[in-house]
Amino acid sequence: MNKDSIKASSENHHRRTVITYGTFDVLHQGHINLLRRAKELGDWLIVGVTTDNFDLERGKLNTRDSVMKRIQAVKDTGYADEVIIEEYKGQKIDDIQKYNVDVFAIGSDWEGYFDYLKEYCEVVYLPRTQGISSTMLREEQISIRIGIIGTGSIARRFVPESKFVSCNTISSAFNPDHGECEAFCSANGIPSAARSLDELTGNCDAVYVASPHYTHHEYVRAALQAGKHVLCETPFVLRLAEAEELYSIAEANHSTLMIAHKTAYCPAFRHLVTMLKSGVIGKIVDINASVTTLTDEKSSKLDHNQYGGSMNENACFPLLPIIKLLGNDVRNVNFYSIMKNDVDIYTKAVFRYDSATASFQVGLGAKTEGNMIISGTKGYIYVPAPWWKTDYFELRFEDQNLNRKCFYPFMGEGLRYEIREFISHILNPEQNFYLLSKGEILKMTEIQQDYIDGKTVYKLS
Ligand code: C2G
Q1: Atom of ligand 1 nearest to the CA of 126
Q2: With a 6 A CB cut-off, is 370 part of the ligand 1 pocket?
Q3: What's the structural domain count of the chain?
Q4: Are 102 and 197 members of one domain?
Q5: Final residue of a domain: which of 119, 135, 151?
Q6: Which residues partner with 145 through β-bridges?
Q7: Inside any domain, residue 299
Q8: Residue 5: pLDDT band by 50, 70, 90 thresholds?
Q9: How many angstroms separate the alpha carbon of residue 34 from the centre of ligand 1?
Q10: How far apart are CA 399 and CA 353, in angstroms?
Q11: Is the CB–ligand 1 distance for residue 34 below 6 Å?
């Protein structure tokens, strides 16, 4: 070390270090002012930029720019001497000690919130710039207007969930019963209760189909033919040919067609899939999952004429992990159904693959534990009930010391994750639909159809 560098390093010890944190999404003048003021508090400014995953965990789902883009934007302001990433709650305490920080600075919208850091350094709340925010800027950019078809219980849950996702507004709703539609719109603050499908499609960019499942095919086709993007509730359609037809219309129109399978998009399930694919429990040999929801006998869900029954209502849930993890090459499936009034009140399905088995139980008129177990050559994964909307699962091994519990966010009703994916796909159509692909959806539909056609179905009374 020469004299100069010794001098520089000893000066470094005395420099006053300031740290600040943020998402810095669609970077604007408010952020720039904050960074400038923070830098003025000392000689060296460290800026912590939140990772996409951390924002997801703290409930910020509407971020537009990726972490790399946000970091670049912070660097481009010229005020940051050092950029770090913030990826967990409590990290600020670690960083302040690790980087020997003198001042923690943050905007006054957080006034008081970070006083707990006073134990470690000086805490300064800087004035927030009025009249500008990332939220405002995101809203000024394109907003997708969504029209809702079907105003039942799932649509009621969809409306508040959509508010957690940026770049969308619910513009209209349609239900053949206009009175019900008006009541739904006024209860949920939706500006227009459409009198016809044409009126709905004339007033939106995308359609969310939340009507009874036997009406999906007709509504999705009408919406696609009107040039709209479509998010369709599960189960998608009841026949393979219908599903293929709808995908080909969507492809010809360059429209997004996505299935609202909330499990496929929620954080815990996504991680479960990637962990399994990377071999944490070895080779998968068996999957068992069940979904039962005791339902009133008079409900339309148990009406033969409305394609009711346990398979039609619930099978799309357990089919997801089976097809996603074991693939499309199912050698055979046997269904065993307990029937009442011409519908299955309970069905057990058993799958044979070349080197794995799977099974599921679904029921509307019988109850069982709603968990999922995925068995492998090195260990197994246990997902407690209700596994289809879980925030947690366990990896379990012969040597219990290796067991691990994994936790993830699952906010509200969990519909916000699929809505975010849908909007993001409309805005970035080049994105691949890998979380639930067309091939997987077609296979799931084919299995549903085989059941409806009575192939290898054993009916028990
Ligand atoms: N800010 C500001 N004026 C605005 C908007 C934002 O001064 N008009 C400030 C905020 O107060 C914050 C910084 O800019 O200090 C970054 O804001 P966001 O990107 O919204 O990040 P935030 O969610 O506040 O993250 O760990 C993350 C931190 O807790 C804060």
Answers
A1: 7
A2: no
A3: 3
A4: no
A5: 135
A6: 169
A7: yes
A8: low
A9: 8
A10: 29
A11: yes
Both 183 and 295 in one domain: the answer is: no
Q: For residue 222, how far is its CA from the centre of ligand 1 (angstroms)?
A: 44
CB of 86 sitting under 6 A from ligand 1: yes
Tell how far the Cα of 62 is from the centroid of ligand 1, in angstroms.
14
Nearest CA owner, ligand 1 atom 12: 107
Is residue 396 assigned to a domain?
yes
pLDDT band at 2 (very low <50, low <70, confident <90, very high): low
**d(Cα 296, Cα 252) in Å, to the nearest integer?**
42
* Whether 7 and 129 share a structural domain: yes
Q: Do 187 and 244 share a domain, yes or no?
A: yes
pTM of the model: 0.86
How far apart are the C-alpha atoms of 155 and 202, rounded to whole Å?
A: 20
Say which CATH number the domain at 377 has: 3.30.360.10
The answer as to whether 77 is a domain residue is yes
Read off the pLDDT of residues 148-191 as tens digits, 9 standing for 90 and up: 999 999 999 999 999 998 889 999 999 999 999 999 999 999 99
30 Cα: distance to centroid of ligand 1 (angstroms):
8
Burial class (CB in 10 A: 0-12, 13-18, 19+), 146: buried
Residue 177's domain comprises 142-261
Q: Are residues 99 and 156 in the same domain?
A: no
Task: Please tell me if the CB atom of residue 107 comes closer than 6 angstroms to any atom of ligand 1.
Answer: yes
50 CB less than 6 Å from ligand 1? yes
Tell me the percentage of the chain whose pLDDT exceeds 90.
88
H-state helical runs in 278-404? 310-314, 316-326
Residues 152 and 168 in one domain: yes
Mean pLDDT calculated for residue range 402-421: 94
Could you tell me if 235 and 312 are in contact, meaning their C-beta atoms sit under 8 angstroms apart?
yes
Average pLDDT over the chain reads 94
Whether 301 and 349 map to the same domain: the answer is: yes
Q: Which atom of ligand 1 is nearest to the CA of 24?
A: 19
Same domain, 80 and 65: yes
Q: Report how far ligand 1's centroid is from the alpha carbon of 157 (Å).
A: 30
Structure tokens at 344: 């299955």
Ligand 1: distance of its center to the CA of 63 in Å? 13
Distance from Cα 431 to the centre of ligand 1, integer Å: 29
**Using CA atoms, how far apart are residues 4 and 259, in angstroms rounded to an integer?**
64
Pocket test of ligand 1: the residue of 96, 109, 124, 129 to mutate, having most ligand atoms within 8 Å of its CB, is 109
The CATH number of the domain holding residue 254 is 3.40.50.720
**What is 42-81 written as a DSSP string?**
SSEEEEEEE-HHHHHHTT-----S-HHHHHHHHHHTS--S
Domain boundary among 232, 261, 290: 261
pLDDT at residue number 126: 97
Closest of 262, 238, 284, 180 to residue 445, by C-alpha: 238
Asked whether residue 350 is domain-assigned, the answer is: yes
